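Run log, item B.
One chain of 332 residues. Sequence copied directly from the ordering sheet:
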Amino acid sequence: MTAVADARPAAASPAAPSTSWGTARTVLRLHRAALVVWAVFVVGLSGWLVWLAEVTAKEERKALEACDRAGQDWCDMTMVGLPGYEVGMGWVGLLVAYVFFGTAAFAGGALIGRELENGTARLAWTQGITPTRWLTAKLGVPALVVTAGATALVLVYRWARSGNQDLLYDVWSDSTFLSRGPAVVAYALCALAVGALTALLLRRALPALTVSVVATGLLAFAVAQYRGSFWPTVTLTSATEGSDYPLSAWEVESGALIHGRQVPNFDVTRCYGGSTARTQGCFDDLGVTGFYTTYHPESHYWPIHLVETGIVLTVAALATTAAFWLLRRRTV
């Protein structure tokens, strides 16, 4: 690759931005359309959350109270014509949690990949902006904007949940888990860094966009698979099937105790179908001495969440370091 001569900055022209603010302002001007889309996204979701908390939740409570007065033990919101507060929160949580896919696509495509493919990056490097300063502005400005917007979404999402916990049953799903804390910001920053690194490697917008989205998606999937092991679990044992663990807990594993050894996903139906004595005799023949459930109580949410946030931020830091190293290697 022969980018050495082109990458060396010439003397700064009067029109070239000579300060860090000038470079940042250029980035904002070039990507103002993306900035507007992001602002509309944040404001729109925030407004939706306010509506869910202040309107939908109150209407749902009124409907539930009406069901109680009518003597109904169970009331489905679809029966009274309401979409349900939990359904709306689920959709918003999904959008908040996985906003990093859009960040990865933007970083790999429009932010870095397109400028490398079109040659505008090399042109900027000849106008008094060093490659390092160029990449710093390209990552720094979006990082601040994304951090501010994602933080606002998390705070509004938590506020919308705080006064309506009794209407929510989904506590530990992937989207709910991420949306309730700073992992949303961590994944967005990681997607930004991965997108930049991918664009520098491929130097073409569309391939970089695709690879960035896939890479961040695989990262999120891999981390989710090991999430249950980020913090020590609690194990509850009982003599009969169905341990009485808290409803707000996350069940990680359950099974039978056979000769004192934990056997997950034990099929107990093989012993059912007869009298109680026959069932117990079947358990005795198999060596079943009890049952167990391994779970994370609600109090484990923040330790697990912060560990995951730290892991993702570490990946983001490594990807950012690799991006700067690759840029210097190709332009010096």
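Observations after the first pass:
- The beta strands are 234-238, 250-258, 261-264, 288-296.
- The chain is about 65% helix and 10% strand.
Flagged for discussion on Thursday.
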